[in-house]
Amino acid sequence: MKTLTGKTAVVTGASRGIGRAIAMHLAQEGANVVLTARDIPLLDAAVLEITGAGGKAVRIAADMREPEAAAEVAQRALAAFGSIDILVNNAGATKRGEFEELSDDDWTDGFALKFFGAVRLTRAAWPHLRTRRGSVVHISGSGGRTPGAQFAIGGSVNAALLSFTKSLAETGLRDGVQVNCVNPGPVRTARLDTRLARIAAEKGVTEEQALAIFLAAEKITRVAEPGEIAALVGFIVGPMGRSLHGSLIDIDGGSTKTI
Question: DSSP H helical segments within 58-116, as ranges?
Fold first, then answer.
């Protein structure tokens, strides 16, 4: 039985990777899905896949770093489907690198998309989520709890999202909106594939051996598939996940060592 029939979900960063997998999964569960990102051809392909399977989806090309983008996405989602029941703030990639080599622009860009984009879109969608007793899920990352030297920006942005989740969850108690945060570790995306290819080239090994080297260095059991993150999000926003509120949920192969 489909668990999200009649609900509308907005997913940012939905053109590829984790965001695309989340959009696909929510559509399979019966939700009307609004996919937003910057890459129009990839968005169109994702929408075509959903509608070709009998689902309902629209795409909104938007750069969530722009202050006016959030209001436009919320308005167009309402125009398309009449409600917003689920918001998944997934958009955002941050620059890795040594601290001394990271510029002010690198830091500003990292916070502009992943943090401020999430804040603005949540604010724009909140009145409609409140009306529908809806759900917000932030996709943060394990680096928010245990950042490494190469992840100064990403760890800081993710930590801000964790704090934002806890604060917003208290508001959600008053307004009837469920708020949670998912912290993936390494996930099999194009970005990770690039890192593995680089390891393979540097070490002169196969990509399978590069993956083993990566797992050992990260001290994790495995790399997750995007569909695993999507399935967790689907559970959280579905009827069986409503007791989750203000939760910071790690799905990281054991990379988070802190309590």
Answer: 69-81, 104-110
Distance CA 105, CA 155 (A): 16
Which of these CATH numbers, 1.20.1280.260, 3.20.20.100, 3.40.50.720, 3.40.640.10, describes 8-187+224-251?
3.40.50.720
- What are the structure tokens assigned to 86, written together? 């689920």
CA pair distance 157, 128, nearest whole angstrom: 26
Token pair of 135, please?
Answer: 């759900």
pLDDT digits (tens, 9 = 90+) for 155-171: 999 999 999 999 999 99
pLDDT at 258: 84
Burial class (CB in 10 A: 0-12, 13-18, 19+), 217: exposed
Task: Indicate the pTM of the whole model.
Answer: 0.95
1 pLDDT band, cuts 50/70/90, is confident
Q: What is the DSSP string of 186-226?
A: SB-SHHHHHHHHHHHHHHT--HHHHHHHHHHHHT-S-PBPH
